[in-house]
Known about the structure:
The protein is α+β, with helices and mostly antiparallel strands. It contains 13 helices and seven strands.
Amino acid sequence: MRVSFFIAFGTIRFMHYIDIHNEIRNWYRRNGRDELPWRQTDDPYKIYISEMMLQQTQVKTVLERYYFPFLKRFPTLQSVAEASLDEVLYAWQGLGYYRRARYIHETAKIAAPDLPTDVESLVKLPGIGQSTAHAVAVFSTHAPVAVLDANVKRILYRFFAKERTTPKELWQMADTLLDREHPYEYNQAMMDIGAMVCLPKAPKCDTCPLSSRCQGKEDPLKYPAKKAKKSRKSVVTHYLWIEKAEKILMIKRHGELLGGLYELPAVEVAPEGLKPIAQIVHDYTHFRRIAKIYRLENDAVEGEWIEKKRLDEIAVSSLEKKIFKALGIGD
Length: 331
Ligand code: ADE
């Protein structure tokens, strides 16, 4: 019925991939990760939280450490809206890219009690881009839209044998290949195929459900063209460990990058005559931080005194967690 409709209007591109759609669906039924908890619900809020977490964090980490505790603490969008930003950041700590937690809080304040499920309303909310909006819409209501995460992009580059494209062209490719009859399974399958089959360095083309029509399968590593590797810069930062009566001096950050999180006071120049009590190497996406920590008696620095035994009750970044651990504090 649907097919003849498209043919009648000359839009045969949609039926063009019926064979591939069947292959993908069959593959998903046999191999898909449908046990993932965000695939066991149609609650747009839970799907949204999973998508925000999965934007920059691996499935394993989200699954094992963050998804359930976050939803236990914040079971509904309304509960996020009623909480302070500090509370949301606290539940997010360690996940990195804290801007995501701030966006969730802002979104909750705007949209509570319920997250919308249509793409047009979703993309208007802070921090929800086209792909996340599509993911929430398709996974909660089976809307016929394509998700375009990094894994899916790699499949598309290879399937259409493109070494480079523009974002617009990528969306066109995603839209062309989309299975509009079964968008839910198609999109979940594409993410799984990207994560399990169409791997960056060792694609398993012989088990890939797209291989019969994949234009890049003769030389998959050619697609997409490799970007010139930028060398990661190293930055040395000197942190102060100022302790008084079982309390530590910490500073609450403001601004975009790690706003809302507590950190140790930092100085540009190493304190004179002191040797670091610990040194930590911490990698971010674009640079490496070498953190040197110095114990100081002086308390001329402005900040908040946090009881040592309460350090695990404030939101801190992974770097601070590493520092605490190196100094034998907490778990
Ligand atoms: N990454 C983003 N969304 C995902 C999903 N629904 N399943 C697995 N990985 C994902």
